[in-house]
């Protein structure tokens, strides 16, 4: 009877997860999506605690306490701008759990003489995907957090070595399926997976890191699926499949938004070209700085304004000030829209989340394809902390490393006002000719302070 109730609870949890994923697809229902997913996870965990296979609860309590102590600060205190590395760390933890379960189950089966081929196959896949994800995610975390150099670390023959390691890992797996009780081969497979994770992520850098984090998310999901098969747990299979597929779809969507093929992201070593190439892509013109008073006057009398938020808006947490400025312009009769680039910021939907938090109505958040047609009619495009996503080189300079990435056509607007602190480059490290365009004025300073000052001046204009 208990087993039937557990399976029903798993079914209910799976329903909640799928409903949650659907809700996460829209900004106005995303918060509900997170609540549904959290509830689903609670149902799944509680149901699992009733499993007859559990022999004692002590270690479960210790594990839950350690998880809660690590998870609370990660959830509450890590800033939104550090989300990619936080997510990378979560994948490392999840994959570590799967890998340890795999090693534990194999060791138990080996000493009990109960290893059978289907289980060994699942355990093998579990430690292969899990091992790669643990070290790959830790390297990704180190790069994104600035502990390791963010640029691609390249060595000769790296792709060939990675392919050889992958082939060696697969050979170990096939060997184990044929002869399950081979501790040495199993250990070699774990070591290969751990090494492959490091070597796979080291040569990736720059704007490609979040794509890799998403791909590692998908590997962590696949490791969970394998764990589910190995320990005969249906909810792990379902959740792992959802996780694996959504991570893969997200990685594909991000590559598409940057106009990069998946193979190019994995093997292209983006950003390895270094500073010289980046500088050479710029025309070398002079930026024209403006004052708050002049910029505010232009905004106060503009009929159509398009706000273009980017990573700098998230850094300075200026979303409320952006909305307040937009409201002030609208109160004076202007029309204000907000342009959303799919990879502005550091995670998909980053700008939607920030602007929704500031209470910008959803119908004013306009996606790239639609807003690009409206820039020609805009009197002022206000670029706030965006750089790569408004870089015309992506459209017109075939020599640029970001050539082909779809961008917001800010340079079509009648005039452009750029709010940034200085001459810093974007995430890709490429110079931006928009800033030296004769119709662009630069308002230097922290985005939040500049938006506050502009608001005060627009009020008085
Ligand atoms: P960006 O290219 O990273 O540029 C951000 C700009 O903001 C910088 O040039 C910086 O210039 C400025 N800035 C930083 N702090 C600021 C502050 N406090 N106040 C004002 N300005 C500030 O940002 P983006 O245009 O949003 O482009 C996102 C990049 O991330 C793209 O290359 C994209 O491919 C990559 N990426 C994003 C995702 C995703 O899912 N969103 C995924 C993968 C890759 P100063 O230092 O001069 O101020």
Describe, in plain words, how this protein is organized in 3D.
The chain is an alpha/beta fold and 461 residues long. The protein folds into two domains: 2-267, no CATH class; 292-460, TPP-binding domain (Rossmann fold, 3-Layer(aba) Sandwich), CATH 3.40.50.1220. The model is unreliable at 273-281 (pLDDT under 50). Helix 5 packs antiparallel against helix 6 (158-178), helix 5 (117-145) packs parallel to helix 7 and helix 12 packs across helix 18. The protein has 18 helices and six strands. A six-stranded parallel beta sheet has the order 3-2-1-4-5-6. It binds NADP nicotinamide-adenine-dinucleotide phosphate. The site of NADP nicotinamide-adenine-dinucleotide phosphate (NAP) has 34 residues, from helix 8, helix 13 and strand 5. NADP nicotinamide-adenine-dinucleotide phosphate binds next to helix 8, helix 13 and strand 5.
Alpha-carbon Rg, integer: 25 Å
Number of domains: 2
β-strand number: 6
Bound compounds, each kind once, are: NADP nicotinamide-adenine-dinucleotide phosphate
DSSP helical segment count: 18
Sheet with the most strands: spatial strand order: 3-2-1-4-5-6
Write the layout of secondary structure elements.
Elements: H1 2-24, H2 30-49, H3 58-76, H4 83-112, H5 117-145, H6 158-178, H7 183-201, H8 209-231, H9 234-257, H10 262-267, H11 274-280, H12 292-300, E1 304-309, H13 311-316, H14 319-331, E2 335-340, H15 350-357, E3 365-367, H16 368-372, E4 380-384, H17 393-396, E5 415-420, E6 440-444, H18 447-460
The structure holds NADP nicotinamide-adenine-dinucleotide phosphate (NAP).
NADP nicotinamide-adenine-dinucleotide phosphate (NAP) is lined by residues 207, 210-211, 254, 258, 310-312, 315-316, 343-348, 350, 385-389, 419-428, 446-447.
């Amino acid at each position: 009877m208990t087993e039937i109730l557990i399976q029903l609870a798993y079914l209910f949890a799976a329903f909640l997860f799928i409903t949650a994923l659907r809700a996460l697809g829209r900004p106005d229902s995303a918060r509900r999506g997170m609540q549904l997913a959290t509830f689903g996870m609670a149902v799944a965990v509680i149901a699992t605690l009733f499993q007859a296979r559990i022999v004692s609860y002590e270690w479960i309590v210790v594990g839950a306490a350690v998880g809660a102590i690590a998870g609370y600060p990660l959830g509450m205190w890590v800033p939104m701008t550090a989300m990619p590395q936080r997510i990378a760390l979560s994948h490392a933890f999840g994959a570590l759990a799967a890998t340890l379960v795999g090693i534990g189950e194999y060791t138990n089966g080996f000493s009990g003489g109960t290893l059978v081929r289907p289980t060994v196959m699942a355990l093998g896949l579990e430690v292969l995907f899990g091992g790669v994800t643990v070290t790959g995610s830790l390297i990704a975390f180190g790069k994104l957090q600035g502990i390791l150099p963010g640029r691609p670390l390249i060595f000769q023959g790296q792709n060939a070595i990675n392919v050889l390691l992958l082939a060696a890992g697969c050979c170990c797996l096939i060997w184990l399926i044929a002869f399950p009780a081979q501790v040495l081969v199993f250990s070699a497979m774990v070591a290969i997976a751990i090494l492959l994770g490091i070597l796979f992520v080291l040569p990736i850098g720059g704007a490609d890191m979040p794509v890799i984090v998403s791909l590692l998310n998908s590997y962590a999901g696949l490791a969970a699926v394998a764990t589910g098969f190995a320990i005969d747990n249906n909810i792990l299979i379902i959740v792992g499949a959802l996780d694996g597929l959504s991570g893969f779809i997200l990685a594909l969507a991000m590559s598409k938004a940057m106009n990069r093929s998946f193979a190019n992201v994995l093997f292209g070593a983006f950003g390895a070209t270094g500073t010289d190439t980046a500088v050479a892509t710029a025309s070398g013109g002079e930026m024209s700085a403006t004052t708050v008073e002049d910029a505010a006057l232009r905004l106060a009398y503009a009929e159509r304004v398009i706000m273009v938020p980017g990573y700098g808006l998230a850094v300075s947490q200026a979303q409320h000030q952006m909305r307040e400025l937009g409201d002030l312009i609208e109160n004076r009769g202007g029309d204000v829209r907000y342009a959303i680039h799919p990879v502005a910021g550091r995670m998909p939907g980053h700008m939607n989340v920030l602007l929704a938090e500031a209470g910008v109505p959803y119908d004013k958040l306009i996606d790239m394809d639609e807003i690009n047609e409206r820039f020609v009619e805009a009197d002022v495009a206000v670029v706030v902390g965006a750089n790569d996503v408004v870089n015309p080189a992506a459209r017109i300079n075939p020599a640029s490393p970001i050539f082909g990435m779809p961008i917001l056509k800010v340079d079509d607007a009648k005039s452009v006002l750029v709010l940034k602190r200085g001459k810093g480059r974007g995430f890709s490290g490429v110079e931006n000719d928009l800033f030296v365009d004769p119709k662009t004025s630069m308002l230097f300073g922290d985005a939040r302070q500049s938006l506050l000052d502009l608001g005060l001046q627009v009020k008085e204009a």
